[in-house]
Amino acid sequence: MDEILSLLPGYNCGSCGSRQCRDFAAELKSQGDLQRCPFLSREMFRDNLERLSLLVGGAPPAEEKIVGVIDGLEADFMLAPLKDECSCREFIHPFDGSIEIKIGDFLRYRPLGCPVTHFAKVIGIDPGIYTIHLVGPLHRLGQEDFRFKDIGLCMILAFEGKVSRGELPKVGQTVKFVPEYCMMQKVHSGMVVGVEGKEIRIEGIDLKVW
């Protein structure tokens, strides 16, 4: 069981229906049970999933449909960070333009259409538009050395990342996708405006997919 536990994501998020990862590990009876964990399908855990499949019996699972956990909608692909980056690049526009923001600042904000507060680091600035890396819906707020600027409600203008699982889209295609690091595993939508290999840019982002 310890080996199985070491291969699980360790988030203790409860998305699988168990109270924590240790309980989930104890309940695993077959490779089908592994599908209860939405994070094991991410690229970063792909090797772990194959090893877990062998440990609980059977071959690694075949590619399955990508379904948002929070909304049950089917997505075209998972969007992963670009090489050596911690999250997809997001391009945001704060509704409150009075706050001075610099590269390297940490921001607290809520995307329009999402109920979760996000924390991000600014990596680029254009007039009214900030390029950010997401550092978490939840952060180490108890640490005295962590400072952030609260910028309130923001519009999400674009994503840049790479397709890690699912269908590679074409330029001009309207798509449904799930960012790998989204804690809600929510389906987003938008229009693909750039494709280079598996790296893509999506604009016209809508978090309210119908």
Automatic annotation (TrEMBL):
PROSITE patterns linked: 4FE4S
Keywords: 4Fe-4S, Iron, Iron-sulfur, Metal-binding
Domain (4Fe-4S): residue spans on this chain: 1-54
Record flagged with keyword 4Fe-4S: yes
Gene3D superfamilies listed in its UniProt record: Electron transport complex subunit B, putative Fe-S cluster
InterPro entries: 4Fe-4S_dom, ACDS_complex_subunit
Superkingdom of this protein's organism: Archaea
Molecular functions (GO terms): 4 iron, 4 sulfur cluster binding; metal ion binding
PANTHER family for this protein: ACETYL-COA DECARBONYLASE_SYNTHASE COMPLEX SUBUNIT GAMMA, PTHR36214
Name the UniProt record assigns to this protein: 4Fe-4S domain-containing protein
Protein's organism: Methanolobus halotolerans
Source organism phylogeny: Archaea, Methanobacteriati, Methanobacteriota, Stenosarchaea group, Methanomicrobia
